[in-house]
Recover the amino acids of this structure.
């Protein structure tokens, strides 16, 4: 069990700032996901926690103890890599036992620990096999077992599912979550896949351009994104973001007669937050809008697609903005057709176009 | 633009039958998707159509005419690959002009310009025309690759996983764009992918291919709602369909190793032992629900939440809209939409089709 604290931790590669000074506390037993596109600094952050990468500045604490300059092997942290990194010439049993042997543990203890961990992961039947003979999913289970067997204070995982097929990824994702619920080990997990992040994380750390954009529960990053980057990055497709101009309780948007009436409980906040340009970005999730004959927003159908359980309407509001609306499976629209829709006033969000930050609603006094 | 037909195509590689008696027809203006896992024979099929590979048996017909003996150039198909094959030192304009400047075509420069301007507008790459390809982003390069195929107005477009090297957000937006362009241009397109979402969202019809054989051909609705085999049922839909062993007993079906007992749908006549399929979105929590299970795992995805409901030793996956307040370990009552159950024999063949 462990609490990890990062204080003003940063990393420079020559001129390049891979991670700008960041603060983050990972609580004991928590599953934290570092999420972002490639090059955002998430893997570098993870590698600094593990000790595989030195920091350029800042302090890393494990349970209050400064581990910033400890060797990786002295940190009591286990690392699961994207590629399985198993020894091909050793059996599964030997692979799993390896870290304990390296630490000079007794044979009895090693056997006991290996037996326990293979039961948790249900890979007893694979013990005699060589890694090369296993499926991708089983290799990943063995890699997890090898990390688990050490009973480290914390687990670090770098895109462990990245190399797997889509359906395997789905079931391994559930297994990792199950494992975390059972073992409750402090875990830091890196991915670029927002679905994985949402499904696994107790909290998600969204990163972009070497900076933390938001730290929050899946619920928070989804419903209350801190800025435009998070709003767009989380969700598939991301949040619809349409820029307009605010005046007299409504946002006028380009294209046809698009005038979005702001919910009353937002009016005061918006009046106080706007700058001289009165520019405002209206944000809503695809499932927070609905087609309605008397809808106050309008566009024409750009494309309609079937996703199995539902359909997605892609609506062209003007030459810049195609918005996405989740709809019933059986809808029938043709391309070019005009379509009206409404946005759920409870679910709408507003952003400042200049700062790209979310505007937080102030409660009416 | 023209119809394409494959009749009984067989292609042998040393030790494997890459294609085994493959037949299908692509109609004029149709967006036809070949869907299957790695090694299914998708790319081999495309290569046989383009003339890059010669089948041992069977015929390829364009507009009803046999083209088996024609060279790739004479077949007049446009190929879009997963890896963009652009000339990095040339401008976007020159890359688009390249196929038109081929000595075989003899298009004059004025006409080339007109066609490129049109194509660039469709793909929204007009501002990029003077740029060198080496300076483009991945998404821009794939757009230019598409442009180079479109500019020629070929008989048919053959696309081999053109979106799979792009990041998720870009893939999403190009998918929508590609679908819009194909629908408005009515270009006959054969699109190969292993991604079920691409297939469901873009296709007029899908052919599911596995181990060199066609398993099913149908509209996205057919493939999703009426899968011919468990292979097809599991290939489309996320999360995956629940497939559980069931037995028939006195007008009910019992899910093995669980307490789930479902009344047999009226028009069903399954054998004593069979496989029951239930899509995750057809399992809905309901305080008055007929069934009960323990919530053993929960995966919130934002737009929806995946619930793992366990009854006995059997776990069913349920997909519900939005976020929930359920707690792991809770007992949850739920309904199963009995009008949307699937039934397969023990070999995985649908008993409903």
């Amino acid at each position: 069990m462990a609490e990890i604290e990062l204080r003003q931790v940063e990393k420079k590669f020559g001129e390049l700032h891979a991670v700008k000074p960041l603060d983050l506390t990972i609580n004991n037993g928590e599953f934290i996901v570092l999420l972002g596109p490639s090059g955002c600094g998430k893997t570098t952050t993870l590698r600094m926690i593990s000790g595989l990468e030195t920091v350029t500045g800042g302090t890393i604490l494990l349970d209050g103890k400064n581990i910033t300059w400890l060797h990786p092997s002295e940190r009591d942290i286990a690392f699961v890599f994207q590629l399985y990194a198993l020894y091909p010439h050793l059996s599964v049993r030997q692979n799993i036992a390896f870290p304990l042997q390296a630490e000079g543990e007794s044979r009895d203890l090693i056997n006991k620990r290996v037996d326990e961990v293979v039961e948790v992961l249900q890979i007893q039947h694979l013990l005699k096999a060589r890694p090369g003979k296993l499926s991708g999913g089983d290799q990943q289970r063995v890699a997890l077992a090898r990390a688990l067997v050490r009973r480290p204070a914390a687990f670090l995982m770098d895109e462990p599912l990245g190399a797997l097929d889509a359906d395997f990824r789905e079931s391994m994702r559930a297994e990792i979550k199950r494992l975390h619920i059972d073992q409750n080990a402090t875990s830091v997990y890196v991915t670029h896949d927002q679905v994985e992040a949402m499904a696994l994380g107790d909290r998600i750390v969204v990163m972009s351009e070497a900076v933390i954009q938001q730290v929050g529960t899946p619920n928070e990053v989804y419903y209350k994104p801190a800025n435009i980057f998070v709003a767009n990055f989380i969700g598939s497709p991301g949040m619809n973001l349409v820029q307009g101009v605010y005046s007299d309780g409504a946002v006028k948007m380009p294209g046809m007669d698009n005038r979005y009436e702001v919910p009353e409980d937002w009016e005061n906040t918006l009046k106080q937050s706007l700058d001289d340009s009165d520019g405002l970005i209206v944000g809503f999730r695809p499932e927070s809008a609905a087609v309605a004959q008397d809808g106050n927003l309008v566009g024409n159908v750009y494309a309609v697609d079937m996703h199995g359980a539902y359909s997605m309407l892609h609506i062209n509001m003007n030459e810049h903005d195609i918005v996405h609306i989740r709809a019933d499976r059986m809808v029938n629209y043709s391309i070019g057709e005009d379509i009206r829709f409404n946005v759920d006033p409870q679910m709408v969000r507003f952003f400042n176009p200049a700062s790209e930050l979310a505007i937080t609603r102030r409660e009416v006094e | 633009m023209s119809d394409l037909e494959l009749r009984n195509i067989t292609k042998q590689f040393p030790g494997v039958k890459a294609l085994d008696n493959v037949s299908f027809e692509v109609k004029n203006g149709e967006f036809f998707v070949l869907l299957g896992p790695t090694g299914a024979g998708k790319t081999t099929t495309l290569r046989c159509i383009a003339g890059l590979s010669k089948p041992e048996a069977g015929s390829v017909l364009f507009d009803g005419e046999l083209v088996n003996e024609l060279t790739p150039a004479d077949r007049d198909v446009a190929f879009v690959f997963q890896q963009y094959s652009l000339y990095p030192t040339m401008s976007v304009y020159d890359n688009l002009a390249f196929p038109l400047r081929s000595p075989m075509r003899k298009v004059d420069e004025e006409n080339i310009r007109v066609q490129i301007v049109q194509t660039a507008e469709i793909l929204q790459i007009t501002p990029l025309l003077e740029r060198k390809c080496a300076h483009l982003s991945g998404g821009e390069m794939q757009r230019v690759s598409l442009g180079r195929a479109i500019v020629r107005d070929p008989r048919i477009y053959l696309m081999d996983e053109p979106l799979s090297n792009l990041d998720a957000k870009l893939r999403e937006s190009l998918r929508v764009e590609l679908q819009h362009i194909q629908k408005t241009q009515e270009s006959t397109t054969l699109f190969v992918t292993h991604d079920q979402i691409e297939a469901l969202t873009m296709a007029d019809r899908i052919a599911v291919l596995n181990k060199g054989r066609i398993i099913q051909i149908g509209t996205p609705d057919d493939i999703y709602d009426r899968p011919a085999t468990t292979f097809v049922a599991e290939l489309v839909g996320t999360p995956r369909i629940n497939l559980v062993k069931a037995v028939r007993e006195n007008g009910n079906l019992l899910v093995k190793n669980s307490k789930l007992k479902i009344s047999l749908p009226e028009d069903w006549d399954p054998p004593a032992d069979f496989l029951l399929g239930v899509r995750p979105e057809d399992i809905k929590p309901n305080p008055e629900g007929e069934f009960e299970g323990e919530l053993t795992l929960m995966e919130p995805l934002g737009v929806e939440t995946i619930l793992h409901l366990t009854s006995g030793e059997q776990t069913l996956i349920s997909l519900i809209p939005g976020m929930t307040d359920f707690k792991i370990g809770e007992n949850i009552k739920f309904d199963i939409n009995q009008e949307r159950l699937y039934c397969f024999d023990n070999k995985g063949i649908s008993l409903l089709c």
Q: What stands out?
A: Chain B touches chain A through 44 residues (CB under 8 Å).
